[in-house]
Every structure is written in structure tokens, then in C-alpha cells.
Amino acid sequence: MPPVKDGTQRFLEIIDSIRHGVHRLPKTVVYLLVPGLFSNHGPLYFVNTKTSFSKMGLTCHIAKIHSEASVEKNAREIKDYIEEMFWGSGKQVLLLGHSKGGIDAAAALSIYWSDLKDKVAGLVLAQSPYGGSPIASDILRQGQLGDYVNARKLMEILICRVIKGDMQALEDLTYERRKAFLKKHQLPRELPTVSFHTEAGISPVVLASLSRVAHAELPTFSVTGQSTKLPVVMPLGAAMAACAQLLQIRYGEKSDGLVTCRDAEVPGSVVVKPTRKLDHAWMVYSSLGDDPSEADASQVCEALLTLLVEVGQGEKQAGSSK
Length: 322
Prior knowledge:
The chain is built from 14 helices and nine strands. By secondary structure, it is an alpha/beta fold.
């Protein structure tokens, strides 16, 4: 497998520039953001990023896929998105996928590369389980985590009933499924690629934290008869921290609570691995109370895509000098 390159220092420099008002993303491409698992319950998912990009005069779209569907189903839909954006604008597409969205986007480029190679300028995979997810594997594996907490049944209810998704979405992220898929469909070597992974904080403070994660529709007695959305609070940050602690003890691996750092690194990619503690759900819910002294999700996405543009330019220069 081709080695990865560390792009963390350059990423931090770009972040600092962005926070001082310097924006370098080109208008010569269009941007496609691909949300991940459970995104249909995050109404603000990527919306702030799209708004931020639009204010800079950039053309940016959020893929409206059913992210809980299987990888191959979403790969086909993302292919259609890319072709529609390319033919509509005449510009190449830069993709950023978060969580399973990165896997779906990578699958689209792997399976349909002959159709897309002239239409795509690069891919960022943010907190994506490219090599698989130990949580997914443990939940679905007999005799392991799945047995003593009845986690498979819980996930079936959560994905199939509450979120109306496909259990295959979780199965597609197991080590076994990912290994089989990557054996058949590898990312093209010539595709500029950036991987981003983080570690969740597992301090007592984090374990006791609460994160706002969704809006529930409750009955109302208003004249209009419309339902009212109220925030539902669940210990998401605490759950991510607990999962990260479990993965550290069980496998000796650092993780964001769902994806280990090792599994998030795409072979041959430029890897960004900041020391800032961020769990897997941070990208989805960062707008609900971030630390203003730190970069928010839209700034992180902008920095990752700016780095991706630089990677692509570097590869072009290297290719032309040969």
C-alpha cells in the first residue's frame, strides 16, 4: 500500500489564515458535501458550511442522499450528483464526505472512475472508516459486543425504524465488508485525497457532557395545527467518550468514538491529525455551542478543501516535471 503523508502542520497554517480572513478556495471548481450516518437527524449538518461558502461566492451543494442506505446505492446517487454538477457548471467537482459520507463518495469514485475522472478534482474523507469500523464489527459479530448488550437489535430499531435507514449501511462498515469492497474497488492513485481523523476526549468532564442531537415533533394545540419542534438532549458526547474509552481498552486504538485513527487513513493520502479533542459527532453538531476561540466545522471544512487544492496542484506540477 502507498504510504501516507502528514499534512497536519500545513492544515493548521491554513486554519490560522482562514481565522484571520484569508480565504483561498478557488471559484473555478464546485463543491459537493456528502453527509454521513444519522445525518437525517441533524438539521444543521453542513448547512453552516454551505452558507459560509456561498458568502465567499463559491458554488456548494449538499448531497441529499439517504445516508443510512447501503454504500453501493449511495455511490450511484453521488455519481449522478457529480455528473449533474459538472454538466451544469462546466467545472470539476471537489468532494468532502464526513463519516459514512466519505465512504459513499470514495465508492462512487472507485466504481465509476472511468466516467468521473475528468469531472472530479479531489476528495476529502473526514472521520471516515475507510478500513472499517470496530464498533460496526463488534455490534454485528456473534460472541462479541453484540451478544451481551443486544446491540444489534438496538441498532436495527435505531436505523430501520427511527431513522428509516438500511441495516446494510452498518454492515457495509464492518472490517469484513470493507476488505471485500476494497479488494474490488480501490481509489485511483491519481486522485488527490486528504484524510482527516481526530481523537475523542475521555476525561470525566466529557463523559458527563450532554449534546443536543435532534429535534422531536411534539403535538401542539396551536390554531395552525402545525407540530412544534423541541430540542431533545441526550448524552452524545458522553456516549462518544465511552466508546472511545472502550476501543482504547479493547483494541489499544485511539478513536473519535466510532472510527479509529488507523482506519480513517486512506493509503496514499495526505493525512490531517490535529491534537484538538473532537469526537465523531462534532462535525454534525458543532454549531450548537462551539468554543469561539477554536475553528468551527465550516472553517475546518474550508481548510481541508484548501489543503486538497494544494495537494492537487502539487501532483500536477510533479507530473508535468517528469
